[in-house]
Task: inverse folding
């Protein structure tokens, strides 16, 4: 254990809520009676198993620097009481507000609190800060998650896999080591109360998130949260952000910056946190700094689709270029949410470009650096029976050898002739001699559910423009280099990992020539058996399959099989949750089937199937 300014202690607590429910909490804090500020991470992630390894790294580190670091499981998850609900719902926010109030009144707390959240919990932290009206002084949010639509199109990849994980997490039981014999009654009550939120997840919904208090945001380029982070910066003078090339999550390299943030807002220390640039980001091979956002060093450069960018596609007599993609366009998209696995990153895009209509620039006479959110304005004509068109746009850098590297992408469901789409926020360098390529397609599976009508659309290049956020090449001249302190974290939790004897490939695509079918199978590298230091064994296996026929948009379907087994051999405790979710479409509806089986010592104790039919 590294040496920190404070000696620390760890304690497991149960926090009472107004209705008599108790939430499971783990607290790391300095030894002694001196009150300190509190940092709350409020999540459904099961603190005694699924998030235990991450918690054991960052929370003792915060405690060693003078904070009470508190990790709390939400209602109905982990060892908390009550019945599970949907992440971010009204009950979860009301519970969180009660936890904030309870922590502020502890004798070991100064009454000043900060909120920390990663992913969906990062979004919840912002909403909870808005609800607690001044009780929370600051927030750190990492990769905050938005809704389940992208430009009006319904996500397939992320929605399906997260819905499966949500059902499984809510169905897992409390741990008898922490809750005693009451675990079984609590488990059965959870199972009986479960209702997969398919209708809510498929709906458009309100994806706006407040920024009520000073907020420090962390993200990685390529994560879908980057666009939200840049909007957050533009709308709040007390927001700061760091965006690197990290996978989804809170990178350990950013922890010292979060500590400076806490020290400034919770301890009134002059750490220089507000003197830092609004945005520090990784651009190519170096870190850059923007004092304000939007940055005066970034300007919009416009590329007309009939001038600076041109297509080899054949226009019709009325100048329109037709876009009608095969249904397997998008198989080389990579993961919607990158978690750092090798197969997460999109490969060479030449195959995808061949299934799209491409508009290419001439070779660039000098390098171009992009930083921000590209936009695309199109004049469209829908080729089908009047249903909206699903426009997918990819921006690539094409090398002299033909290699096509993805820079960013965006989606828009367009019902009228004039359409404007935002591409995902990006940072990237395109060398001189390379070409910029805008690739348009009418399908992007399995990221997005295909439109019911596969007729595609047509584009008038003379009335269509791509606008790119181009950073001045001399912007860094005379600027102070951006550097980060390396944190000295505790040793990793001693988790024993048992690798499967025959590990599945992370991503496999099969083309059945006889059936004209494309199938992609995904299996996360995190699968396997993990034994925690306290003896808990968690075994997890997931397989997701996406299928589509080349010329049949309504053939698209997704299926995930997810199994989680928890064991405590010393107690003879052995429970398993098996979930299967299936989703497909007809012309007017999404059709879902969710199946759940719960086993105790190999015997089935609960089984249920839910069917949903939701308008598209």
Result:
């Amino acid at each position: 254990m590294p040496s920190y300014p404070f000696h620390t202690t760890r304690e497991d607590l149960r926090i009472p809520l107004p209705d008599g429910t108790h939430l499971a909490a783990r607290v790391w804090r300095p030894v002694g009676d001196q009150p300190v500020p509190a940092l709350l991470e409020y999540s459904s992630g099961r603190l005694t198993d699924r998030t235990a390894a991450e918690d054991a790294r960052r929370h003792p580190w915060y405690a060693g620097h003078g904070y009470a670091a508190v990790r709390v499981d939400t209602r109905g998850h982990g060892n908390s009481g009550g019945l599970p609900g949907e992440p971010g719902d009204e009950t979860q926010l009301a519970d969180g507000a009660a936890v904030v109030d309870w922590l502020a009144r502890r004798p070991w707390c100064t009454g000043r609190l900060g909120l920390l959240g990663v992913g969906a919990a990062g979004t919840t932290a912002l909403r909870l800060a808005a609800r607690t009206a001044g009780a929370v002084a600051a927030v750190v949010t990492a990769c905050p998650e938005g809704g389940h639509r992208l430009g009006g199109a319904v996500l397939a990849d992320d929605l399906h896999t997260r819905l499966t994980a949500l059902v499984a997490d809510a169905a897992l039981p409390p741990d008898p080591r922490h809750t005693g014999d009451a675990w079984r009654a609590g488990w059965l009550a959870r199972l009986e109360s479960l209702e997969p939120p398919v209708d809510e997840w498929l709906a458009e919904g309100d994806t706006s998130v407040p920024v009520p208090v000073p907020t420090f945001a962390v993200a990685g380029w390529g994560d879908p949260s980057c666009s939200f982070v840049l909007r957050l910066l533009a709308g709040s003078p007390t927001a700061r952000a760091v965006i690197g090339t990290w996978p989804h999550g809170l990178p350990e390299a950013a922890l010292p910056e979060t500590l400076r943030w806490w020290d400034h807002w919770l301890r009134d220390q002059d750490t220089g946190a507000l003197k830092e640039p609004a945005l520090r980001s990784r651009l190519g091979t170096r870190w850059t700094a923007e004092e304000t956002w939007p940055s005066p060093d970034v300007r919009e450069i416009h590329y007309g689709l009939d001038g600076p960018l041109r297509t080899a596609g054949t226009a019709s007599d009325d100048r329109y270029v037709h876009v009608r993609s095969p249904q397997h366009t998008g198989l080389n998209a990579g993961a919607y949410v990158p978690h750092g696995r090798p197969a997460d990153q999109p490969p060479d895009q030449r195959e995808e470009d061949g299934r799209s209509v491409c508009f290419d620039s001439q070779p660039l006479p000098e390098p171009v650096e992009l930083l921000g959110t590209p936009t695309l304005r199109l004049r469209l004509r829908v080729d089908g029976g009047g249903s909206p068109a699903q426009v997918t746009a990819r921006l690539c850098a094409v090398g002299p050898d033909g290699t096509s590297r993805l820079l960013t992408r965006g989606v828009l469901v367009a019902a009228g002739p004039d359409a404007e789409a935002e591409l995902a926020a990006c940072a990237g360098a395109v060398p001189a001699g390379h070409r910029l390529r805008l690739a348009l397609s009418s399908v992007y599976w399995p990221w997005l559910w295909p439109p019911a009508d596969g007729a595609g659309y047509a584009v008038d290049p003379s009335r269509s423009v791509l606008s790119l956020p181009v950073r001045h090449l001399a912007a860094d001249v005379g600027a102070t280099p951006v550097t980060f302190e390396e944190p000295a974290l505790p040793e990793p939790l001693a988790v024993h990992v048992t690798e499967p004897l025959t590990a599945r490939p992370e991503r496999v695509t099969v083309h059945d020539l006889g059936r004209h079918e494309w199938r992609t199978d995904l299996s996360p590298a995190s699968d396997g058996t993990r034994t925690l230091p306290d003896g808990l064994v968690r075994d997890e296996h997931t397989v997701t399959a996406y299928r589509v026929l080349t010329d049949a948009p309504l053939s698209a379907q997704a299926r995930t099989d997810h199994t989680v087994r928890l064991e405590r051999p010393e107690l003879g405790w052995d429970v398993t949750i098996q979930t299967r979710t299936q989703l497909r479409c007809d012309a007017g509806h999404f059709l879902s089937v969710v199946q759940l089986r719960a086993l105790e010592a190999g015997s089935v104790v609960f089984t249920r199937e839910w069917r949903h039919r939701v308008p598209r």
